[in-house]
Amino acid sequence: MGTNAVPAQSPFDPASSRVERVLCFAAHPDDIDFGAAGTIAAWTAAGVEVSYCIMTDGDAGGFDPQRRDEIIGLRNEEQRRAAALVGVTAIHYLHQRDGYLEPTHEVIREVVRLIRQVRPDVVLSMHPERNWTRIQKSHPDHLAVGEAVTRAVYPALENPFAYPELAEAGLEAYKLPWLWFFAGPEERENHFVDVTEQIDAKLAAIHIHASQHPDIAAMDRTVRGLSLATARRGGLPAGRSAEAFHVVTVNGPGTIAGF
């Protein structure tokens, strides 16, 4: 998006769209904190119930070769502490191998299972499209999360005959209202959340993931700068901080079943 471009119109109106439960999907511990912790902090402060699903154990992360046998437990604990700082206590894991995540039917079925259990108003996920402007957002595991969640949300989630063992176990088909993506291409962004009041909480959550960030000061400067730039792209006043999303209406007033 160019500096003079007008941001796309969001289909999501906070004033008229009730959000009571949110389920967030990410590839690794720390992904959600970089992409959406400010928005999540605002949601939980407003009484919204937010839960996480981390698809891999983050076992390929970190920098210390002497602590490889500790990395899974360490990253799990970092994510638990970071989530608590923004009001989240429910964290689910799919225990896939870091760097090997694929949108297989095994993974998609587990995504469908969890969404049917939680029955959220919003599913928040990493984006399935590659970001060529900042390719670090597009780790292959990130793209796999986006693809698996997208395939799960439609049609499997709302089709009672998809993964019939789930319906047989009492997890009935569910029509999701909203799918929010983060970490996608800037040209897909259509919804900007002002997180100026939550930026310190977001950074505090990111700081917890010390095993992944050997230069905390540089990381802090980068995140603050990106948050300010995101706010400018979204047309917010100078000095504000924002997070950006690609919001998709999955089931709304104009949705026709099967189309």
Structural overview:
The chain is an alpha/beta fold and 259 residues long. It has one domain: LmbE-like (Rossmann fold), CATH 3.40.50. The protein is built from 7 helices and 7 strands. A 7-stranded mixed beta sheet has the order 3-2-1-4-5-7-6, sandwiched between helices. It is globular and about 50 Å long.
Low-confidence stretches: none
Overall structural domain count? 1
Please name the CATH architecture: 3-Layer(aba) Sandwich
Q: What's the CATH H-level homologous superfamily?
A: LmbE-like
Number of helices: 7
Gist of the model:
The chain has helices at 31-45, 71-85, 105-118, 140-153, 164-168, 199-208, 216-233, and strands at 21-26, 49-56, 90-96, 122-126, 178-182, 191-194, 242-249. The chain is α/β, with parallel strands linked by helices and 259 residues long.
Fill in the keyword field for this structure.
single chain; 259 residues; alpha/beta; Rossmann fold; 7-stranded mixed sheet; 7 strands; 35% helix; 17% strand
Secondary structure layout plus pairing:
Elements: E1 21-26, H1 31-45, E2 49-56, H2 71-85, E3 90-96, H3 105-118, E4 122-126, H4 140-153, H5 164-168, E5 178-182, E6 191-194, H6 199-208, H7 216-233, E7 242-249
Parallel strand pairs: 1-2, 1-4, 2-3, 4-5
Antiparallel strand pairs: 5-7, 6-7
Helix pairs in contact: 1-6, 2-6, 3-4
